[in-house]
Structures are given as C-alpha cells and as structure tokens.
Design goal:
Radius of gyration: 15 Å
Structural class: mainly alpha
Low-confidence stretches: none
Strand content: under 5%
Shape: globular
Oligomer: single chain
Largest sheet: none
Order of helices and strands: HHHHHHHHHH
Number of strands: 0
Mean pLDDT: 95
Number of domains: 1
Helix content: 55-70%
C-alpha cells in the first residue's frame, strides 16, 4: 500500500523544497497550519539546520508536525509531545541508522567542498527523498497509533 502523504512529501522535495519543508508542509494543513506558513517555518531546518549536518531536516519537519498535534502552551502538559517525539526519533534512527544529516549523507554540507562533492555524487536524489518518505510515514503512524 502506497502512503500518499509520504509520496506527496517526497515529490515536494524533488520539486526542490528542503526536507524539513517537504514534511511539515505536507502534514501541517490537516493540523490547522496553512501550507505557506509551514514552508516558511521549516525553511531554516534543511540540511540538518541550514547545512550544519545536525538532526536531519526530515526529522525536524516531522517533529514540528508532532508539536502541532500534541504540543501544549502549558509547560505542565508536555508528556504527549515528548512521548510522540521520542518514539519518532527512536524509530527513525532504527530504520535509517542515524538522526544526523551528515551521517545519513556521508557529507558535511557546511563545508563547501563537501557540499559540491555531495551534489556531484547524486546523494540528494538517492538518500534524501527516502528520508523524507520515512519521516512522513513515521509521523503519520505515530499520530494514528497515539490518539488524542
């Protein structure tokens, strides 16, 4: 069975939006955040925080989705978002081997020579669409399993 939302997010990435933008903008509208605002919010998180190679942007996009779904404006009510977020990160790491962009890609994108090598290798068309698909799927599964 094909996951239509994950495919939509993957297509959005292939249209040159960042990984974080692709995940958040695909899932956010059904949670009350319009697509344009979602694209703007997530724009600084691609490449593991603006190419710094930290947590994969697809993961941060999915975490933002879980924040929309389970987050609270009351600091005493963060258990739901914490549980959902930890579950997403655990499952993503189990499935993909790491949460870090530089480890998933094998390149540290903040270094100009490595960014160029990554572009030449085709890694952005091989690995990133899969990470976007996986993060979107996991966020959807967690929201389906964790009713609230």
């Amino acid at each position: 069975m094909t996951n239509l939302k994950a495919k939509k997010a993957q297509t959005r990435f292939e249209e040159e939006f960042s990984c974080s933008q692709s995940v958040l903008s695909t899932l956010a509208p059904e949670l009350g955040l319009d697509e344009k605002t979602a694209l703007k919010i997530a724009s600084a998180f691609g490449g593991g925080m603006m190419r710094h190679g930290e947590v994969c942007g697809a993961v941060t996009g999915a975490l933002m989705v879980l924040g929309l779904k389970y987050g609270s404006s009351n600091p005493d009510e963060e258990e739901d978002v914490r549980e959902a977020s930890q579950e997403l990160m655990k499952r993503f790491k189990e499935k993909n081997g790491s949460l870090l962009c530089r480890e998933l890609l094998g390149y540290h994108l903040i270094i100009p020579e490595e960014l160029e090598a990554a572009k030449e290798s085709g890694i952005f068309t091989k690995v990133c669409p899969l990470m976007v698909h996986n993060a979107t799927t996991l966020a959807e599964e967690i929201m389906k399993d964790k009713k609230r």
